[in-house]
Write a structure and sequence with these properties.
The protein is α/β, with parallel strands linked by helices and 280 residues long. The chain has a single domain, classed as L-arginine/glycine Amidinotransferase, Chain A (5-stranded Propeller). The protein has 7 helices and 14 strands. α3 links the parallel β7 and β8. The relative contact order is 0.16.
Length: 280
């Protein structure tokens, strides 16, 4: 699991990057350290990335690349201020044994938050303000043998606020997802139904607080942002043990949950359960 700890100089970029409020630098570092400790206690091999210096968004390591069985594809973010992140992350990937096998070029745009591996042969890609048709076409060309399913995402609050596919849905296994169904593309709902994938529904009042942003650590084990208690209880009724983390600085001010803050590199060794691990 690759993560990128915030650096002291990063916080100054918050306004230029569109964060909701100025984060506390010490709070950012403290929350990220607790997140790393929680991931390690759950059985993850936590690997550190250097990322792009001075760029607070680079704590969200899921967006700059797409990890495939052959290696990493460096994406081209739709958010112009993040365009340097893929190249900055490349040495970290190589250092941790993940080769860079391709990179997107203009006019292609794609962000990792708009990509979800539904299974090993199916990649769902959201057509959003951050991922364009050229980006989706480039991914199709780079992934022969993979079914790349494109789905249109809703406008909702417009260009000023990010709405990734992972803002709406997170996979918890090949037969279970958590999602905010009222905003899901019809094509995606029908795909889930055809595949027999069960959906845990996020309640209306917990969509805006990142209820759908849940990180699968192992079958039946997930990590979620604290505060979405109704969503957590629904997951537990579906047989998922939910670990929670507190994050007013890292997650709430920057609109990035656990799937944004982590980049799974290898899921071949499942994490162990960690019900006795403290949440913070």
């Amino acid at each position: 699991m690759l993560v990128r700890p915030p650096a002291p100089a990063d916080a100054a970029s918050w306004k230029a990057l569109g964060w909701r409020a100025e984060p506390d630098g010490a709070g950012l570092e403290r929350e990220h350290a607790r997140l790393r400790k929680l991931l390690a206690a759950a059985g993850a091999d936590v690997l550190l990335a250097r990322g792009e210096p001075g760029n607070l968004d680079s704590v969200y390591v899921y967006d700059p690349v797409l990890v495939t069985p052959r290696g990493a594809i460096l994406l081209r973010p739709g958010k112009a201020a993040r365009r340097g992140e893929p190249a900055a992350l490349a040495p970290d990937l190589e250092r941790h044994g993940v080769p860079v096998v391709a990179r997107l070029e203009a006019p292609a745009l794609a962000e990792g938050g708009d990509t979800i591996w539904l299974d090993a042969q199916t990649l769902v890609v959201g057509r959003s303000y951050r991922t364009n048709d050229a980006g989706i076409g480039a991914l199709r060309a780079l992934l022969p043998g993979v079914e790349v399913v494109a789905v249109d995402l809703p406008h909702l609050h417009g260009r000023a606020e990010v709405l990734h596919l992972r803002s709406l849905l997170s996979p918890l296994g090949e037969e279970l997802v958590i999602a905010y169904r009222p905003l899901l593309p019809v094509r995606l709902v029908e795909l889930l139904e055809r595949r027999g994938v069960a959906v845990v529904d996020v309640p209306d009042e917990e969509f805006e607080t990142m209820g759908p942003n849940v990180l699968a650590l192992a079958p039946g084990l997930a990590l979620a942002l604290a505060g979405n208690d109704r969503t957590r209880r629904r997951l537990e009724r579906a047989g998922v043990e939910v670990l929670v983390y507190e994050s007013d600085e890292l997650s709430r001010k920057g609109d990035g949950g656990p799937t944004c803050l982590t980049l799974p590199l290898d899921r071949s060794a499942p994490a162990r359960r960690a019900s006795s691990t403290p949440a913070t």
